[in-house]
Structures are given as structure tokens and as C-alpha cells.
Amino acid sequence: MLATLDEPTPVYSILRSPAVARLHSVTKRYGAITALDTLNLAINAGEVLALLGPNGAGKTTAIRLLLGLISPTAGSVRVMGRDPRDSATRTRIGAMLQVTRVPETLRVREHIDLFRSYYPHPMSVAEIVRLARLEGLEDRFFGKLSGGQKQRVLFGLAICGNPDLVFLDEPTVGLDIESRRALWAQVRELAARGKAVLLTTHYLEEADALAHRVIVIDKGKILAEGTPAQIKTRVTGRRIRCVTDCDHSWLRALPGVADVQPDRDAVVITATAPEAVLREMFLHDATVSDLEVSTAALEDAFLALTQAQA
Ligand SMILES: Nc1ncnc2c1ncn2[C@@H]1O[C@H](COP(=O)(O)OP(=O)(O)OP(=O)(O)O)[C@@H](O)[C@H]1O
């Protein structure tokens, strides 16, 4: 049965299933640069795993290793228990990468037929069209489609082989919020069908909405791993927004303050213990106003984790 938008696959059932792909103590060096440093990572069936990290963290390197495009300097890479470079393994993987380019002068249906021909057990055309929401676009030239429609075609091509493991490298970059949400629904449906999905994104809202599990990496190492909710509590951060005369550098120096950012005429403070920060602020400035205290967003957690590392 397919899960609905509001009912993601329960995490406990994902954790019981065997890993579809695994990086075991993987180090990857490019000359003097260590892109990945003894990294362990597993992706499970029915799971959307989001890999988050700042530029140069090692996300693309991890995906390229799992796709069998590069070899590790040390450690092992396994996809469905085998070397990802095996041709039998490759036919069970689908990828929508930022570098994916397809000819503009073929029709959508021709692209689907071509990609299906690469695989021994492709998904049916009707299923691809339905999952990628390409109804009515089959006879259109790829080059004449809108950005959102093109992304949907690339998503459709990534699933042509009925893959067990799907890589989505920033799949919604440049899309408007409506197209982005539509693609999220498609990704959820893939996971509900038991596919393992590895997603990289710079939209933390996307990881929060979509991922069963998030791994934050920086400089080739894992900084945090867990459900989006667990990552958020990892920083136990709360967000304080208020209007105050307190100096920002003074606020930054208060114990437990992770971040201070101006927000129009107000200030947004991320802090582990908001009560203590507020006590100090009220002692310092009795005119504090427009006060709001809320739970940290994934974005706050991500910033706190990567800034702590820096
Ligand atoms: N072919 C290569 N030759 C040399 N260095 C490389 C190569 N590929 C990646 N690197 C370096 O390895 C590190 C990790 O890069 P990687 O592309 O995996 O990061 P990323 O997390 O995907 O970054 P982004 O979000 O910017 O795409 C970076 O320092 C990068 O410059």
C-alpha cells in the first residue's frame, strides 16, 4: 500500500531492513585534499536519506563512490552487497544528477523509450509517466518544456530501470515552491514503494519535509545523524526573536548563544538555554519587546553544527 503524504514510512521499519548501500570507513583523497575521511554511511530500503553539508563537504564524492564512478582511497563501498561498478548492480541504480543533460530535440516519450532500453527489467511507460507526472507531455520536445517539466522528465528517466536505489542530487534547484512540493510527493511515493532514496539538497526545508533520516557532513566527516527532529534537538536550540537595544556582539558572547542575526528591526538569537539568555537581556535592557521564542528549525541546527566545526 502506498503511504500518503502525511504518513511517511515509520522509521522503525526502515531501521530493521538491511542496508541497500553502504560506505564502510571510506576515505577518498584527491592529492592533498581529503574529500571523505573514514566515513560510514548506510541507506535502507524505503528510506529517504538526506545528505546535508556546506559546499565542498564531500556530498558529491559520496554519491560518485556509490555510483561506482570513482574508487575509494581506503575502505569499502557496497551497493546491494556488491561492488557498485558491477554491471548487474548498476542496472538497479537510478540517478538524477546536476550534470544530467539530455538532447533537447527528442520527444519525452522517445527519451523514456531510450532509457528503458538500457535496463533488463524497466518500469512500464505508464508507470513512469504516472510517477513522474508526465501525462500530456509525452509528445513534447524536451527543449520546449519549462524548467519544472524538464526536472520531472529527468526524474522519470532516473526511475526508468525500476531502480532499488535512487540518487537525487539537488533535484528541485531552481523550481518554484509548487513544482518543488509536487516533486516531494513523487519522492515520497518512491520511498513508499520500498526504494532507497539518497537526496542532497541545499533547501533545509526540503530535507525536513522529505527525509526520514539526515546526515550532516562537513570536511568529509559526519557531524550529526538522525531524524530531522533528532537533529533539531541535537542543538537543543531555541530561536528567540525580539526587538532590543542589546549589542549583537554582547549577545553573541552570552553563554549558550549559538548564533545572532539581525532581522529587519529585530534580532534572531539561537540559544541552547533561552531562559538564561532572556534573563540576561532583561537585566541589560528593560525595553525588550515583540518577543517570540520558538523551536530551532533544521536550518538553525545545520548552521550551529557546521559553525561549531569551523
Ligand atoms: N576531481 C577532484 N579533484 C580534486 N579535488 C576534488 C575533486 N572532486 C572533489 N574535490 C574536492 O573534494 C572536496 C569535496 O568535494 P565534493 O564535490 O564532494 O563536495 P560537495 O559537498 O558535493 O560540495 P558542493 O555542495 O559544492 O557540490 C572539495 O574540497 C573539492 O574541491
Provide tags for this entry.
single chain, 310 residues, alpha/beta, Rossmann fold, Alpha-Beta Plaits, 2 domains, six-stranded mixed beta sheet, four-stranded antiparallel beta sheet, 12 helices, 28% strand, disordered N terminus, binds adenosine-5'-triphosphate, ATP hydrolysis activity, P-loop_NTPase, nucleotide-binding, AAA+_ATPase, ABC_transporter_ATP-binding
Offer a concise description of the structure.
The protein has helices at residues 11-16, 59-66, 87-90, 108-116, 125-131, 147-158, 177-192, 204-210, 228-234, 248-252, 274-284, 298-309, and strands at residues 19-30, 33-44, 48-52, 74-79, 93-96, 165-169, 196-200, 213-218, 221-226, 238-243, 257-263, 266-271, 289-295. By secondary structure, it is of the alpha/beta class. It has 2 domains: 11-232, P-loop containing nucleotide triphosphate hydrolases (Rossmann fold, 3-Layer(aba) Sandwich); 235-309, 2-Layer Sandwich (Alpha-Beta Plaits), CATH 3.30.70.
